[in-house]
TrEMBL record:
It comes from Caenorhabditis brenneri. Pfam families: Arm_2. Coiled coil: none annotated. It is a single-pass membrane protein. This is Armadillo repeat-containing domain-containing protein. The keyword Transferase does not apply. It is found in: Membrane; Mitochondrion membrane. GO terms for cellular component: mitochondrial membrane. Keywords: Membrane, Mitochondrion, Transmembrane, Transmembrane helix. Residues 136-216 form the Armadillo repeat-containing domain.
């Protein structure tokens, strides 16, 4: 209870709640912000994130207090914000951490993510789904066919965040893998606007990125081959205002140029030192052979 008096209401810096608290307790509020700022700017926060990510799965009261302090004044563009939120997201898989996060008012700031793993949270998830789907970057849940329309709005948000300043957003990639595990979601996914330089996600030396990138494209390609999805069958989901096929994710992966690049990358990755990456790349090449070639301009005239 001492803690609730010591820390201001949990909200973004400068928000309405923080301003009210600062007006009532100016000295205390400034002290809290100063301590939080010192934490954000020190190696201590990086060490905390590293420890929680690699060695320790259960949060302590002190950990929660440190995280709360950092989030209280951290700039939204801060380098360590995404790693910190990733740690919190992963920690949510443990029920004891969920209780601790609620007690320390951390739940207000992070996405639901791994809370979906626990069946005890399903009732809450169903009620919250429509409100949280647009900002989601990570989700651990099997998507049923009757749930597809609820998840469709997250696709453009996810693709927009896939590459940030040339770097792959691992959380966005995780969600794409999750979405592609539902074959009926694939036409909606492939009809969305593509990402410039999409296949650069395969050109990385980070194994955690590469294995998910290959997995995503393999799952998507498997569904395309199994369901015999041509552009004609996904065209109704084309989100481009002018319905231009070349602006779709489908074209970026399976159009003439994209397909050639994908085959080249996959062949190269079959020799990767990571056996998981190598085997999935070999499967991708075989699966890609079942995907019909994208029709070239004037091909309908040739058939005539």
């Amino acid at each position: 209870m001492e803690l609730k008096k010591k820390f201001p209401p949990f909200a973004t810096a400068g928000s309405h709640l923080n301003r009210l608290y600062a007006n009532k307790h100016p000295i205390e509020f400034q002290a809290v912000l100063q301590k939080a700022a010192e934490l954000v700017g020190s190696p201590r926060l990086r060490a905390l994130i590293d420890r929680l990510y690699h060695h320790q799965k259960l949060l302590t009261d002190f950990d929660a207090k440190q995280i709360l302090s950092a989030l209280q004044c951290m700039d939204p563009t801060a380098e360590l914000l995404l790693p910190l939120l990733t740690v919190l997201s992963n920690a949510t898989a443990y029920p004891s951490n969920q209780l601790l996060k609620r007690e320390f008012r951390l739940t207000n700031r992070v996405c639901i993510a791994n809370m979906a793993v626990s069946s005890d949270n399903m009732d809450v998830m169903k009620l919250a789904l429509n409100h949280i789907v647009s900002p989601l970057t990570n989700l651990s849940i099997n998507i049923r066919k009757d749930q597809i329309q609820k998840f469709v709005p997250v696709i453009p948000h996810c693709l927009n965040r896939l590459l940030v300043r040339g770097e792959v957003n691992l959380n966005a990639l995780r969600l794409l893998v999750n979405l592609s595990c539902c074959p009926d979601m694939i036409p909606y996914l492939l009809g969305n606007k593509s990402v410039s330089g999409l296949l650069r996600i395969l050109d990385t030396d980070r194994d955690e990125v590469l294995i998910r990138a290959v997995t995503w494209i393999l799952c998507t390609t498997s569904a395309v081959g199994a369901l015999n999805l041509t552009y004609d069958r996904i065209s109704e989901h084309n989100s481009d205002p002018f319905h231009n096929p070349s602006h779709t994710l489908y074209y970026s992966i399976y159009g003439p140029k994209g397909r050639e690049e994908l085959e080249t990358q996959a062949k190269h990755l079959t020799n990767h030192s990571n056996k998981n990456v190598a085997s999935k790349s070999a499967r991708l090449l075989k699966t890609l052979a079942n995907v019909p070639l994208f029709p070239t301009a004037g091909s309908h005239l040739n058939r005539l």
